Amino acid sequence: xxxxxxxxxxxxxxxxxxxxxxxxxxxxxxxxxxxxxxxxxxxxxxxxxxxxxxxxxxxxxxxxxxxxxxxxxxxxxxxxxxxxxxxxxxxxxxxxxxxxxxxxxxxxxxxxxxxxxxxxxxxxxxxxxxxxxxxxxxxxxxxxxxxxxxxxxxxxxxxxxxxxxxxxxxxxxxxxxxxxxxxxxxxxxxxxxxxxxxxxxxxxxxxxxxxxxxxxxxxxxxxxxxxxxxxxxxxxxxxxxxxxxxxxxxxxxxxxxxxxxxxxxxxxxxxxxxxxxxxxxxxxxxxxxxxxxxxxxxxxxxxxxxxxxxxxxxxxxxxxxxxxxxxxxxxxxxxxxxxxxxxxxxxxxxxxxxxxxxxxxxxxxxxxxxxxxxxxxxxxxxxxxxxxxxxxxxxxxxxxxxxxxxxxxxx
Length: 411
Known about the structure:
This protein is α/β, with parallel strands linked by helices and 411 residues long. 34% of the residues lie in helices and 20% in strands. The mean pLDDT is 95.
């Protein structure tokens, strides 16, 4: 982003979420702000012989919500995206029969797309031969599948983009939508992330990488961001989508505005495939760029929804950057202990939660945080949600491959 430009405030008029914490925005927000431990952590039989045999999974029947015919045309990550998109569009009060479909963009991030279906098809081919491979493999598994499925479901005919920047995908998708609206390419953008990485292959690899927690004896407390005893993240599934509009478009239809996306910044570490740069310069560049793009000062930021993965290195580096760029005054939280690390969906879900934090003036606690790591120079909200007065918040994301992204949100 270019510093010094006139800030552009994309109006957030709708939210939609499907997470292991709850199906729907209200259910997820209530769980994140009121529950003391996650309810969606489940052990999976197909992972039984792995060091990590548990995942955060959403409790919903997609066949019931979408119908058999529609469901069969999508992998689960796309199904979750469609369900979240329907909620977001309804929340925004948009009529898909009367909107200008060519001015509606869809931008959805995902790290792995339909990886579970790849797993299933590989097993089928190995056991029964190539003739058993589904002809729908490509359309069901491509990363852009969620965006295209939402377009077809809602009849959106503007730009359709699938963003793949690992665990920053959802945040980059929202930032990209902000840029499209600013450029006048569209009037409405449905943006965020979707992921359903319930894959034996993926979890086996994550175990070998030592990225995930191995607390099999108590999975509900395994994910513990910023805790001195953290030992890795826990994978989760979910979708989080926002309806963004050009401010004049939202005003013309008298739509209630829940918050604004005011600034976006992104960068690359150019350092390593799976580890963030130790000096944190990559995420620092993204954060400073987002603040400059928004035209806000570090002192204006009252809340940060951090990437906060519960890995030793990420939490230390991110906290150090937050202190260096913004200071120690903002109230910081990570909501991943309640939702799991939903990879490419995380930025969408967590941006939606940041909108709600601004709207409710309430910062969710960091669940499972018992003893904060004394090396972390930030004020972390824990034990219970904290009421506070703030007009500006930040969402940060980091991803494998050195992808960094930050958003600035305002009331």
